[in-house]
Design brief:
Layout: H1 2-13, E1 21-26, E2 30-36, H2 42-46, H3 51-64, E3 70-76
Parallel strand pairs: 2-3
Antiparallel strand pairs: 1-2
Helix pairs in contact: 1-3
Keywords: Cell shape, Cell wall biogenesis/degradation, Chaperone, Cytoplasm, RNA-binding
Subunit structure: Forms a complex with KhpB.
Pfam families: KH_KhpA-B
């Protein structure tokens, strides 16, 4: 569910949605999402002063709180 949410948001933002790649690493109490986008789209995903990345993380943590799980979004270059 979290993967689909992040994928939908990021593909809506970037110019090259085919280059969006999300790897899910499951743990007992937490899930790590590793996000990779095209090099030209990294700035769009992070935003000025990290505002867009912070907003995506906020939405993600709100969606995951119903499952009592912690979700971490890592944006990789």
């Amino acid at each position: 569910m979290e993967r689909d949410l992040v994928e939908y948001i990021v593909k809506s933002i970037v110019d090259n949605p085919d280059a969006v790649n999300i790897k899910v690493i499951e743990g007992e109490k937490s899930t790590i999402l590793e996000l990779r986008v095209a090099e030209s789209d990294i700035g769009k995903v992070i935003g000025k002063n990290g505002r867009i990345a912070r907003a995506i993380r906020t939405i993600l943590s709100a969606a995951a709180s119903s499952q009592s799980k912690r979700v971490i979004l890592e944006i990789l270059d």
